[in-house]
């Protein structure tokens, strides 16, 4: 027997009962970003592999181990995007929209791909919403990104479940001096490091700082601190960021071991973390990357951004039971019609109601059926009310109006008065 078809491991279907919560989350974020003056950009899912090698760094775990890379028919090496910043930088360079110092405040949404071991909250195809801002170099825009996310957590009802961690990586020069000091210290304790940290010591030593290995963490207690190597400019920038967060009243924790997993970061880095999702604690992270545009062939252009994982944040909403009641209800009103004449009149009436109440979720029964079967479908739909149109209602040009979820008797409503009645009842219901 042939093997049954199924999705690739770590690449999941999002089923109809799940998509309402996704749409609620995505809509909430999009509305917030509109209010802050950000514009959406959409980039391809596939890019030339060289883009990610040049931007993320060839010795990062993403490039070394996790990218989905293949040759197309022309022999070009292509990669499914593992993150969005590099693709966004490529797009603004290609189209020249940051030239001449033009400020761009952009956001995007879509799937990313990394060949990781699938587990709860970590998948091989995952979805992100990302923001990128170009040609603003002060701490005020760094603060705005964090303030926006703080407002988002409040709107979603999860503010008490997340914590902000901050660090500064300084400029490339100060980070280079710190890297030398860290390598010297860790090399003197080489035998006490775990195997993965020993490998990173030769390729990407700053990543040793965020190891989960307890023995290596013990070694890091007395390791040099990045803060001691910051240049004056980076220190002033970081103090400016903290002052703005303090002014707004956003609490944060300084984490000197926060380095992020990508080579392009400089100065500000931050993560929003939670203890509600087990091992996958980061729900939103980002920072400043002032040298990336130049590294990718453009003129020196300051940049800062972040990305948030949709799967993890949707999971948080479910875990904390922060799901609005209307999300679980996909239908407000269900129209039941009995007989050919009533079905035709019902279609016309439904469209008239939709004209007057464009936001009303009105479902018309399809497939005919008995009174009992149609009411069963109306109840299963989750609708608040059922509309009934049969021979008696047709003769009187009224609709039977029956509450399905609460108290109240069935009543008859004239066709011309139905839209106004629904507007009142659905809002109040």
Notes on the structure:
- This protein is of the alpha+beta class.
- Helix content is 40%, strand content 20%.
- It is built from 16 helices and 16 strands.
- It has an 8-stranded mixed β-sheet with strand order 1-5-6-11-10-9-7-8. The protein has a 5-stranded mixed β-sheet with strand order 13-12-14-15-16, with helices on both faces. Strands 2-4-3 form a 3-stranded antiparallel β-sheet.
- Helix 5 (139-156) packs parallel to helix 9.
- The longest helix has 18 residues, at 139-156.
- It is elongated.
- 33% of the residues are buried.
List the helices and strands and how they pair.
Layout: H1 19-35, E1 39-40, E2 46-48, H2 49-55, H3 61-66, E3 68-71, E4 77-80, H4 85-95, E5 104-113, E6 125-134, H5 139-156, E7 163-168, H6 172-188, H7 195-203, H8 214-220, H9 232-248, E8 253-254, E9 266-273, E10 282-288, H10 292-295, E11 303-309, H11 310-319, H12 325-328, E12 333-337, H13 340-356, E13 362-364, H14 371-381, E14 385-389, H15 391-396, E15 398-403, E16 411-414, H16 418-428
Helix pairs in contact: 1-5, 5-9
């Amino acid at each position: 027997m042939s093997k049954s078809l199924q999705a690739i491991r770590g690449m999941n279907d999002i089923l109809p009962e799940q998509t309402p919560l996704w749409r609620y989350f995505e809509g909430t974020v999009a509305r917030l970003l509109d209010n802050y003056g950000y514009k959406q950009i959409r980039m391809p899912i596939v890019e030339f592999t060289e883009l990610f090698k040049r931007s993320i760094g060839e010795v990062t775990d993403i490039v070394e181990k996790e990218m989905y890379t293949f040759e197309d028919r022309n022999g070009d090496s292509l990669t499914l995007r593992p993150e969005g910043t590099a693709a966004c930088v490529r797009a603004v360079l290609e189209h020249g929209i940051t030239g001449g110092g033009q400020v761009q405040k952009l956001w995007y949404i879509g799937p990313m791909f990394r060949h990781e071991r699938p587990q709860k909250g970590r998948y091989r195809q995952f979805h992100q919403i990302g923001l990128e801002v170009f040609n603003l170099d002060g701490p005020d825009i760094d603060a705005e990104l964090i303030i926006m996310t703080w407002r988002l957590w409040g709107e979603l009802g999860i503010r008490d479940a997340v914590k902000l961690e901050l660090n500064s990586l300084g400029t490339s020069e100060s980070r280079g001096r710190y890297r030398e000091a860290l390598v010297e210290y860790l090399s003197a304790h080489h035998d006490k490091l775990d195997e993965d940290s020993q490998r990173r010591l030769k390729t990407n030593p700053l990543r040793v700082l965020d190891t989960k290995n307890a023995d290596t963490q013990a070694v890091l207690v007395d390791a040099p601190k990045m803060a001691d190597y910051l240049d004056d400019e980076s220190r002033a920038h970081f103090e400016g960021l903290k002052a703005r967060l303090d002014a707004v009243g956003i609490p944060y924790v300084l984490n000197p071991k926060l380095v992020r997993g990508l080579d392009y970061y400089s100065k500000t880095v931050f993560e929003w973390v939670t203890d509600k999702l087990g091992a996958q604690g980061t729900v939103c992270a980002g920072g400043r990357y002032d040298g990336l545009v130049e590294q990718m062939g453009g003129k020196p252009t300051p940049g800062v951004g972040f990305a948030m994982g949709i799967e993890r944040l949707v999971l948080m909403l479910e875990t904390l039971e922060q799901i609005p009641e209307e999300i679980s209800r996909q239908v407000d009103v269900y129209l039941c019609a009995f007989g050919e004449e009533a079905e035709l009149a019902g279609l016309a009436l439904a469209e008239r109601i939709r004209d007057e109440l464009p936001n009303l979720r009105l479902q018309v029964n399809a497939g005919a059926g008995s009174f009992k079967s149609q009411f069963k479908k109306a109840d299963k739909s989750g609708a608040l009310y059922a509309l009934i149109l049969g021979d008696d209602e047709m003769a009187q040009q009224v609709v039977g109006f029956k509450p399905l979820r609460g108290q109240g008797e069935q009543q008859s409503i004239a066709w011309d008065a139905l839209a106004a009645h629904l507007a009142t009842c659905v809002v109040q219901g």
